[in-house]
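Subject: Interface between my chains keeps coming out wrong

I've been trying for a while to get a sensible model of this assembly. When I model each chain on its own everything looks fine, but I need the whole thing in one frame so I can look at the contacts. Pasting all components below, labels as-is. Any help appreciated, I'm running out of ideas.
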Amino acid sequence: MDGRSYFSGALSPENLSRIASNPREIPGILGRTRREFLRDAAGLALGSSLLGASPFLHGEAVAKKRKVIVVTFGGGARDQETFAPEGQENIPNLLHELIPQSSFFTQVTNRGILGHYVATASLATGVYETLNNFSAVPPEHPTVFEYFRKDLHRPSSDAWVVAPSNGFNRIGESQYRSYGPGLGAKVILPKHLLSAATSGGATDYDHLLRDNYETPLYTPQIGGGEVELQQLENILKLSVDDFTKHARTASSPDELSLYIAKRLMQQEAPSLLWITMHDIDIAHSGAYSLYVDAIKRTDRLCAELWKAVQSEPEYAGNTTMFILPDFGRDSDEDPGGNGFQHHRTGDAVSRTTWMMAMGAGVRPGVVYDSPVQSIDLVPTLGSIMGFSAGVSQGKPIQELL
Amino acid sequence: MLPADLKPELFAAYPPQGRALVLSHLEAIRQLPLGFVPSLLNTIIDYDYKFPAERDSTERELANLASLSPEQIKQWHQSFAQLSLSPWLEQFDWVNQPGQFLEMESAHLWSTHQLDAFRQAATEYGDRLRQAKPPKPIPVQRLGIAVIGQGVASYDATLFRKLRPHGTSFTNIKPENGISLLLAGVAVRAKAHPVSYGHWYVDGGVAAPCDPVLTCLSYQGMEPVRTAVLKNIESELKRPGMGPEELRTHLARLAPADLAIDRPSEPVLDRFQLKLLTEGSGTQIFSTTFAQWTAREVLRRAQALTLLVRFAPRQRQRPMNEMLASSNTAPEVDPVGSLVDGDMAAWYQWINQQRLPGAEKSSFLVWFEGHNQAVAIGPTMPRGAQSSSAFNLAELLSQITT
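Reply #2:
Try treating it as a single job with all components included. I did that and got this:
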């Protein structure tokens, strides 16, 4: 048994005779819907007419100073709660602040396993990983952090991951031969830090310590290169008291993650920063209002992060930020699922998402509806930052090169 | 082992009715591919505890199988036969643990990128089966009722946004005695069209008094079962090696007798209640999730002819670990959040109802409890229309069911 079997909704025997017959055309329809909405509502241009000159005009001279931030809009939000007309009220910041500054890709598909850890690992390696979603195991293939550090000879302080739950603590580096240990990103787990800071006993913080919305009681053993408590002071320049005091004001784990990310930007200024949001996955509890609240919060946090980028001298003007969900959630129409609650059917809606890229070198206000895959992110980052993602199975996204 | 190797003695542990059913179709089952048989056995192994509609569905499927020639059986299941399964799946005891086999098969299909092929095979098979063995006509048009918003004094945002285009919005409903009138109405239907497990009342809080002709489940009424399940989970989590999937497998195997909550007179309902809590994510914690998931399962499994679901305020979000520990602090409730939950759940209830036979003639009513807003959907209700008629709930029910 492994973590993949958790996503077995489509296999339930009752569904054998009741699974919807649809899925082939849905990704294109979703993409077109997003494109038309963005063109009509936000007045954005269609990307196909702009192809030609590279947006990354300054090439290698700029590459040394370039910063890249990747934010996963997790864990899994559907169009009808975001970009569809009835969902737009939930994402005012993406819509009115960030998208006008972005190149927006309307059709990003994830053809891998739809579990948050394994899908995030796939995003980070550019290969559809098949690891156990619920175990603290490293990705099988080299991560973007390893490519970046090895090819560009960057120190460990230059690549960081801020991840939501303990299960993500091994995402920083693979065990791939010629890459692997010592070449990856440092991983910081804010909830793990908080747990350590409160010696695991302060119930005031319990609301932040939940590890995984799919399996709320499961906390894998930590065994990777996570930041230890003393690093709060050494790296983040935070006393335990200050940290716990701030945590008391955070309404959610993702708010705490944003706080940590900002501290990292101030203290370490990594060139490659990866932040995985996870509040939205509260949807697994089945309470729709909590799911929508989390989307609104994530929308706000993305905007706050972009504001922080503009206000940090190390980042302002030379940072490219990518925001993308790891995947969607099941459609209302698929009888194998239960609508927004899970992402177990593997239907087209749960596999089809979007991506926005903004900041340095990116054409603002452009919509691209050509299909890309989530594994295309890593080779694209390689082309932008100047490293080779040799083992990745994705392709660089031409519209961003 | 492959299906061709099946022998009668391998089914010795099956409950008696399920065993009889599988043995009477063994020759046909032997001809099916491994990618299909455990799904079928997973249905049959619980046959003794299934609702009448589920039994009928299984019997129709097996009758169809028996009517096919060996060549036709091969043709019908070709897509399943083309799935590439690993040798360790063949070696697993899929006869006695078909559910666990399905979990492992699912893992294998995900990791080998065969899930889409499985979905396609299942879709084609289902369509074909429905054409070959259509379900029996139902004795009365289906009726669904969702009552949402209990405890909410006022709400300014628009409700029923997803359902409005499918029916008529009423803005001047008389709310007095609404629940009693609705329960009386569905009891009359149940008495006029008696069908075992055909008429249901599900309450996310405390059940209102109702006629015993209705099958009634409530969040409060199931508290002993919830407590037993949560205690079992707590104790299992302390065992070494317990992880999320191990817990899931453990819960899937639980029977009412394991928790000492079985009642000899209600084996089917007891098992159904347990499944609601062991298979439904969040049903143990949030009453709105319990009501939504129960409605889904009542429609999917029992294929209810009548289903009244009343949503009650769920507890405010607290950490799951704390909630699962059943701390004694009285939980606060979140009426407005529960109204939003219920609004979405009503949409899902209607969708699930419309997946059942006779959808074109079925009716649905959603009402904001204690208020004058409702949406009624049915063959006689104009779509996307609005009405200011001052009906009470009995009159509105009568409008959509006649």
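Reply #3:
Confirming on my end. The radius of gyration of chain B is 23 Å.
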